[in-house]
Design brief:
Elements (H helix, E strand, L loop, with lengths): L12 E6 L11 E11 L13 E15 L2 E6 L3 E5 L4 E5 L6 E10 L2 H7 L7 E2 L4 H17 L4 H22 L5 H14 L8 H8 L3 H12 L3 H19 L4 H7 L5 H12 L3 H10 L6
Antiparallel strand pairs: 1-2, 2-7, 3-4, 3-5, 3-6, 3-7, 5-8
Helix pairs in contact: 2-3, 7-10
C-alpha cells in the first residue's frame, strides 16, 4: 500500500530586529523602531504586548486572528493588518490552522494617529493590496535595511515605509472608504506640499478644499489633530530638515524654498518644533555623516 502523504512539520520561529534611530532620523516624519519575521502555530498563546507604536502585519501563509477592542478580524495570505499597539489587542494563529507566518514592522511618526483615524482602521484594520508581491518586496527590503544597520538605514527605511503607507492610503481611498471631506483635505495637503513657497492663507486652503474656513478648521481638528496653519508649519519645517543635512545651501535660501521669506521666522518655528536651531540641526546631522559623504 502506498504511504499516506503527510503535511510538512511547522517549526515556530521568531526573528526580531531593532532599529535605533540615529541623528538623521529626526529629518523624517516616520521612524522605524523594530521589524521581524514570525511563524507561530495554533498551540501558542495569543500575543498582546502593549507598545506605544503602530504596527503593520503582512500575512505570508496560513491564517491569523486579530482582536482589537473586542472586534475580531481574520488575517489571510497577502493581507496587511494595521495595528495601534497602544490599544487593547491580541493576535494569534487561527485555531483551526496549522500555522501562521507573517512579517511585521513597528514604527512611530508625525500624523500617524490622525491618518489611522481618517482611514477608519479601528473599524476595518485589514488592507488587501492590489499587488501583494510588491508589498511583500517592500517589507523584505525594510527588513534587510534593519538587519544590516547601515548608516543610511534611517533614510532608506523612511523612504520604503512612506511608500508602503502611501499604498495603503491609496488602496483604502480607491475602495471608497474615505469620505468626500477627507478626500478634499487629502487633495489640499498634496497641493500645498507641491508648492510650499506659496504664501498660503486659511482662506486659500478653504477655497482649495471647497469648504468654509470654519469647516476647514473643524475638519483639520478632527482628522489631523491640529489647525491648518500649524500643520503647514510642520510641513515646511519637515521639508527643510533633509536640505539642511544633505546640502550646503545657505539657511536663508533653504528657508525661502520651504515658504519662509523671513529667515528669522523660519529659525523661530524650527526651534519651536525641533528643539534646535537650523544651524545646530545642520551641525548635528552633518557630524553624523561619514567622511566623504
Amino acid at each position: 500500500m502506498p504511504e499516506e502523504a503527510t503535511s510538512p512539520e511547522i517549526h515556530p520561529r521568531d526573528d526580531v530586529f531593532f532599529q535605533t534611530p540615529g541623528r538623521l532620523s529626526r529629518a523624517f516624519p516616520y521612524s522605524l523602531l523594530a521589524a521581524g519575521r514570525r511563524v507561530c502555530t495554533s498551540a501558542e498563546m495569543p500575543i498582546a504586548h502593549r507598545f506605544n507604536q503602530h504596527t503593520l502585519i503582512l500575512t505570508l501563509s496560513g491564517k491569523g486572528l486579530l482582536q482589537v477592542n473586542g472586534l475580531s478580524s481574520l488575517l489571510h495570505e497577502g493581507t496587511i493588518a494595521w495595528l495601534d499597539s497602544s490599544m487593547l489587542y491580541s493576535h494569534r494563529c487561527e485555531p483551526r490552522q496549522s500555522h501562521w507566518s507573517y512579517l511585521w514592522l513597528g514604527f512611530v511618526g508625525y500624523g500617524l494617529d490622525s491618518l489611522f483615524d481618517s482611514l477608519g482602521v479601528i473599524a476595518d484594520p485589514i488592507f488587501e493590496p492590489a499587488k501583494p508581491h510588491d508589498t511583500e518586496a517592500l517589507f523584505e527590503s525594510i527588513l534587510r535595511e534593519v538587519e544590516t544597520s547601515s548608516f543610511l538605514a534611517d533614510n532608506r527605511c523612511f523612504a520604503l515605509l512612506a511608500q508602503l503607507i502611501s499604498s495603503l492610503v491609496s488602496e483604502r481611498a480607491e475602495s471608497s472608504e474615505l469620505s468626500g471631506a477627507v478626500q478634499r483635505l487629502q487633495q489640499v495637503m498634496e497641493l500645498v506640499r507641491a508648492d510650499l513657497v506659496r504664501p498660503w492663507t486659511v482662506g486659500d486652503l478653504a477655497i482649495a478644499a471647497n469648504l468654509s474656513q470654519a469647516q476647514l478648521f473643524r475638519r483639520f481638528r478632527q482628522r489631523m489633530g491640529t489647525t491648518p496653519l500649524d500643520w503647514l508649519r510642520h510641513e515646511r519645517v519637515n521639508a527643510a530638515k533633509p536640505l539642511l543635512v544633505v546640502t550646503d545651501e545657505q539657511i536663508g535660501k533653504i528657508a525661502a524654498r520651504c515658504g519662509y521669506p523671513d529667515p528669522f521666522h523660519f529659525a523661530r518655528d524650527f526651534k519651536k518644533l525641533v528643539g534646535a536651531t537650523p544651524t545646530e540641526f545642520r551641525r548635528q546631522g552633518q557630524s553624523a555623516r561619514p567622511v566623504g559623504a
